[in-house]
Each structure stands twice: as structure tokens, then as C-alpha cells.
Amino acid sequence: MQMVGGKFVKHFDLIIVGSGAGLMVMEAALSKGLQCAIVEKAKFGGTCLTKGCIPSKMLVYPADFIREAEESGRVGIRTPHPEIDWDAISKRMWDQIDFSKSIENSLKDVPNLTVYKGIGAFTGPNSMAISCEGKEDEIIYGDKFVIAAGARTFIPPVEGLESAGYVTSETFFGDKFPKKLWKSLAIIGGGAISAEFAHIFSAFGTKVTIIARSEILNKEEKEVAQFVGRQFTKNGIELLTNSTILSASAAGGKKYITIENSITKRHTVVECEEIFAASGVRSNADALSLEKAGVAVDKHGWIVTNSCLETSNEAVWALGDINGKYQFRHKANYEAQILIHNLFSDGDKKEARYDTVPWAIFTHPQVAHVGMTEKEAQSKGLSYRTAMNHYSEVVGGRAMGYRDGDGDNGFVKVIISEDKKILGVHIVGPQAAILLQPFVYLMNVGYQCKKTKQAMSARELDSLRILCPNIDTYEPINDSMVIHPSLNELTAWVFEKLNTAQ
Predict the structure, then answer these.
(1) Domain topology for 2-51+95-151+282-344
(2) Domains 2-51+95-151+282-344 and 365-499 belong to one CATH topology
(3) Among 55, 228, 355, 378, which residue carries the largest CB count within 10 Å?
(4) What are the tens digits of pLDDT across the range 361-378?
């Protein structure tokens, strides 16, 4: 407690807003004996646990199973179409989401921790008003603040959309979760969330239409996005790309979206049972009254942070989705570890870096990505080479039934600098996320070496190059044994093609 304006008010060493990756910082602070408060307006555990990657995977895996069963004829297995038990699938999903209740209950009796179930907004550079339902607003003070309040779905300004009604990832994993499968679904947006839900519902038998302003998956390598698009079409997903939504409406138990093709100017009306808005995300910073704390945001509303995750207020730090630097839980966890060191450890500060942020899109086929696309390498004026290897070119892929010329024969594509550094890796096909991860480790080894090199004299650096000339290159892959036969050969042997790639 402290005295402010003649009144005793609650004062904390650290106030954390958001219970996703913010929980990691909270645990570290409590282990140091600090007095902490955590503020959460919704379910505890953050987007990933309650309305994102974890519950969605409870739906993706059954959808994967269905697609694999449909394709099993390629290896001589004939299977009938699986029977879908939506209630059982839904229960598994809700069991995961409901783990948030255990998190919330476990926090209630933690020493030195005060839990606020409500909305926090700054009232000054070191104070915050907490609005909890059914209670009078409470002003609390803190020496330090960590903002991990996340992002939410961006809703495009479409005439009639609000009155027609729609679902977002937040409401889908909430009060608008369907008790039975929709017969038809129109998804607005062509990114990762759109691709995952299109896979889920198309596999379950829903007629899915994707409406995208440009091409689908436009942050991916061109060949990857085109490959996924062809597989979507093969699986009955209608793609309406380069499309502008003019209006939406509802009548007679159906919903209608009128679109215009930006190239042909042709108008089309999409009829569906439900509309799913998956057109990107926007920052939750607008609810925090950051201007009262002197915390700067960029033109899109994301909190501006430096490489140490500091904001323009020296008492405020921000991490995760809300700083606008990639919206992935693993990126938020990484930042939490950086921030824990910077807040609670002695010695030099650590800096966050984002040039090797990996991600996967759990659609069908699966997509994984780290580093640059070829277009990005070109825009930077880099000299580079590329190579591709298809699943059918290794025994592991042929055992799965992939053959040269198959429309669903996935691949790995690598982008390599002239001095053999890995600039980017892109994989589309089964187990893409697993196959990508070793490249992330290898690319980060190069980063650690760069840090070491900066502190070396010229003589020491020359000695390092003599002793370990392959540091920061793909050569360790060429010098390693690879389990045979396995899909690891797909990614290991792609480098053999660099000599023949044009």
C-alpha cells in the first residue's frame, strides 16, 4: 500500500496486463519475491490456449485424418469416408480450452499475487484503473508494467456485415461455436487462419468459399501458395481471389456476400450459412489509454518497442502480439524469456531478433516457413541460389505414395546465399513443421557466431575461420548422416540440387 492524495492505494512492484506469455514474466517476478498484479479481461491462458492454436489443433488433427483416409488409395488401402462425431470432437476441444479455469483457480492463492479479472487502462505513467464487472473502478500503482494484452480480429468495414452477422476466431471458440456442422461457410481473408479453418470444415463436409483481396497465403513463397491453392480447389474449396467485398446481407436463413473481382470487375454473390471473418488482426492497445502513460504506438496501433522490448515509457515493456512483430505464441514466449532476463538478471541486456522467426500453417497440405522468400532476397539485392526437392524424390515420400507428376507432390525449397548461408526455407507437405525446425537451429548457430565474432580481434577471427570454416553455412547438413529411409532426406538432400539449380 502507498499513500496517494491522502488515501491508501495498492502499489505493486510489477503489474502485468494479459495472461498469455505474460504468465511467464509473472512467474519469474514472483520467484524473486516481488509483489505482482495480473490483469486479464477474458479467459486465462491467452489467445493460444483459449481461442487460437491449441483448440484449433483439436479440430485440425481429425481433419488431417479424414484427408489421409481419402488419399490412402495411393498406398493400396481402400477406406470408407470416416463417420464424423462432431460432439466428441467438440468435447476434446472444449476440454483444452477449459484448462484456463485451472490456471485461473491456481492463481487465486499464490503469495504476493493479486489477480484482477477485468480491464486495465492507464491513468498516468505509473497508474492504472481496473474495471471489474460489478465493482467500482480501482486505481492501482506500479513500479513496472508489462503489457501482453494481445490482438483481436480485424473486421473489414463492409456494408451490411454487422447486421448479417459473422463469426471470428474469438467468437467461434466462444458463444458462436456451432452445435452442428455448417452446410456452407464463406471465409473472408486468405491468410493462415483462413487456410486452417478452410481445411477443417471442408474435410468435415462443409462447402467452403474463401474470399481474398489478393492471392491466398501471400506471405508465403509463391510456389508454396500456388501449390496450396491447387490442393484447396481439388478438395472442393472455392477460391475467390483478387476480390473486393461490396456488401453482406442475410435473408431466409441464409447469408449473402456480394463481391467484385478487382481484375475483371465481375460481380458475384456468395450464398452461405455462415460468414467467418479471418481478415487479419488489430492491436488491443486502443483499450489501454496508452497516451496517459506516454507509451507510443505506430500508425497501425501497435505498441512501439525497441530490441529490448522497452517502450517510450521507461517503466513499461510490451511483448507478444501487441507489439506488432509477428503474431505467434512461440514468438511471444521467446520475447518473454528475453524480458525476464532484462528485468531480473544482472549483466548486459539481451536483444530480441526476428530474422529467423519460424511458423507453420496447419492446413492441408501443411506449410512451414523460416527466413526470406525469394522475392525478399531479390528486393534486398542479394546474390543467391535456390533448389527444390519433392517428396517423391526420397524413399520416405515414395513410401507415402507420392510419385513424380502427382498434383499433391509437396516439396522443400531453399534459398542460399553465395557464401552458403541459409537465407530461407519453405516446405509444403506432410510434417512440414517438423521438417523445418532443424533449419531454425542451424540458422541461429550462425547468429551466435556473429555475436562472438564482434568481440574478436582480427587474429582470433582468422583462427576461428581456420578451425571451423563451415560455421554459419549449410555444410554441417552435408557432413552429417541422415536416417534412411525417412522424410529427413527430403530436406537434407535438397542441397545436392544447388549445383544444378538455375
Answers:
(1) FAD/NAD(P)-binding domain (3.50.50)
(2) no
(3) 228
(4) 999 999 999 999 999 999
Question: What gap in Å lies between CA 498 and CA 492, rounded to an integer?
Answer: 12
Three cell numbers written together for 414: 531453399
Cis check: omega of the bond before 469, within 30 degrees of 0:
no
- Condensed to tens digits (0 to 9), the pLDDT of residues 404-438 reads 999 999 999 999 999 899 999 999 999 999 999 99
Placement of cell 491513468 in the chain: 123
Cα distance between residue 16 and residue 309, in whole Å: 14
pTM of the model: 0.92
Alpha helices (H) along 298-431: 329-344, 374-379, 395-399
Domain boundaries, the chain: 2-51+95-151+282-344, 161-279, 365-499
Residue 243: partners with Cβ closer than 8 Å, 6 or more residues away: 211, 212, 213, 259, 260, 261, 262, 268
Q: What's the CATH superfamily of 365-499? A: FAD/NAD-linked reductase, C-terminal dimerisation domain (3.30.390.30)
- 261-285: per-residue pLDDT in tens? 999 999 999 999 999 999 999 999 9
Query: What is the rounded average pLDDT for all residues in the chain?
Result: 93
Helices (H) and strands (E) in the chain, counts: 16, 22
Residue 420 three-state SS: coil
Which grid cell is 401? 505414395
Rounded-to-integer distance, Cα 385 and Cα 159, Å: 47
Cα separation, 422 vs 446, whole angstroms: 9
Residue 161 has pLDDT above 80, yes or no: yes
Say how many CA atoms lie within 13 Å of 210 toward its Cβ: 33
Architecture of domain 161-279 in this structure: 3-Layer(bba) Sandwich (3.50)
Q: Helix 192-203 vs helix 222-234: angle between axes, to the nearest 10 degrees?
A: 20
3-state secondary structure of 73: helix
